[in-house]
Sequence to fold (304 residues):
Amino acid sequence: MSIQNTQEKVSAMTTCAGCPIGLVARTVLGLVDGPAVVTGATGCMEVTSTIYPNTSWKVPYIHSVFGNAGATISGVETAWRALEERGKVKDQKKPKFIAFAGDGGSYDIGLQALSGALERGHDFLFVTYDNEGYMNTGHQRSGATPIGSSTETTPAGKESIGKSIRRKDLMQIVTAHRPAYAATANVGFLADFERKVKKALEAKGPSFILVFSPCVPLWKYPESQTINIAKLGTETNFWPLYEYENGEYKLSYEPKEKISVEEFYKTQGRFKHLFKRKDKEKIFADIQDITDKEWKKVKKLCNN
Fold:
């Protein structure tokens, strides 16, 4: 994937330094063997790859609004099947239909369209790059934002620890639709991510990948630390890696030693206020308890 405008000049994407979403798109499209059609919900990936008159996409690309990436890719896939039935594309290889959306366009605003697409059983891959907030619109909290995170809409203060409620479990929402394939992934575990993309592209029916994608501006960490922080998210069980295939769950990675989730929180400025509180020990004990229970739930699903 490269930047290409109408005059065939090539330049870079306009993402923030340290942003991994270009890596997410390159990884997915780099594993497509043949044609592809992509839709992108409004969000960081869309605005940094399609600033007129430039585009990063050398495949047919449709800009969806924030909430309808699932509906858009459903329509494209349905249109192809209609053309097949009429014999209009009999000499052409079927494209891979791929949707990209941030957590706003997946967990929240786009959840209804994603659910409908999964339920109807369209043949597509939906990729969520999860940076745990609405970054494109000013760093507001989303359904993916974790407890304790200070955002523009959940600011930390004397009476607030930041976001006070747990994030949604989008993987469980998706797997409740019984897709052909679903998995969590992490930009810090690239080989695992690539393996899962291959499986998702080979699946017949709807597939889904939820990719952990740290964000420098909201998470507030040095831009050189993106991959290290992403890895730490999984090593502390904050972001478990597992997959769902043929109705069964399978664990992809288990840390060799237990590292407290507090170590993950220490790496980011969005949580710095928690370490200044008198009740910080209780706060982190509660967050660790939630993390441990979620990890046990994943292991139980995977029969580990």
Observations:
- The chain is about 35% helix and 15% strand.
- Residues 1-11 have pLDDT under 50 and may be disordered.
- Residues 54 and 199 are 32 Å apart (CA to CA).
